[in-house]
Amino acid sequence: MSECLFCKIARKEIPSAIVYEDDTLLAFKDIFPQAPVHLLIISKAHCQGLGDLTPETAAAAARIPQVAAQLAADQGVGTSGWRLLSNCGADAGQSVAHLHFHLLGGKPLGGKLCQ
Ligand code: 5GP
Ligand code: ZN
Predict the structure, then answer these.
(1) Using a 6 Å cutoff on CB, does residue 97 contact ligand 1?
(2) Residues marked as catalytic
(3) Distance in angstroms (rounded) separating the CA atoms of residues 74 and 52
(4) pLDDT reading at 4 higher than 70
(5) Residue 24: count of CB within 10 angstroms of its CB
(6) For residue 96, which ligand has an atom nearest its CA?
């Protein structure tokens, strides 16, 4: 997807603060952090989100929890606590239509839903 923001970040056409990369995943700091630790973990291959997985992106997504746990530890929140979430669609507030998970931590994260 040539015009997709996260595809451009994955191709390094747009700079980001990358903290992890492998063959199929990229993790970088969110540009508008909602917590002291706020990373985005994306599949390098494009799909819109968890509702639109392809075999390739499903295989990448399946590895995200394990990568997130390692990144949480690396970022110093492995013990204090962290949250991994993916917004799917308009009601969830998804603003970038490319599969990504938010990794949040470093402060009490409150309830599961914004009021
Ligand atoms: P969503 O709203 O789709 O769940 O999450 C998209 C996230 O991407 C938001 O938290 C937003 O701050 C972040 N974001 C949007 N544009 C950029 C950008 O150009 N660079 C980075 N690093 N994050 C971005
Ligand atoms: Zn994309």
Answers:
(1) no
(2) 100
(3) 30
(4) yes
(5) 17
(6) 1
Q: Chain-wide mean pLDDT for the chain?
A: 96
Place of tokens 């390739």: 56
Nearest Cα to 89, choosing from 57, 44, 51?
A: 51
Q: How much distance in Å is there from the Cα of 80 to the middle of ligand 1?
A: 24
Q: What is the pLDDT of residue 10?
A: 98
Is 5-105 assigned to CATH 3.10.350.10?
no
- Contact residues for 86 (Cβ-Cβ < 8 A; gap 6+): 49, 50, 99, 100, 101, 102
Residue-level pLDDT at 113: 78
Q: What's the pLDDT tens digit per position in 58-108?
A: 999 999 999 999 999 999 999 999 999 999 999 999 999 999 999 999 999
Q: Is the CB of 28 under 6 A from ligand 1?
A: yes
Would you say residue 115 has pLDDT above 70?
Answer: no
Ligand 1 pocket test: which of 47, 91, 95 has the largest number of ligand atoms within 8 Å of its C-beta? 95
14, 5 in Cβ contact below 8 A? yes
**Pocket of ligand 1 contains residue 94 by CB under 6 Å:** yes
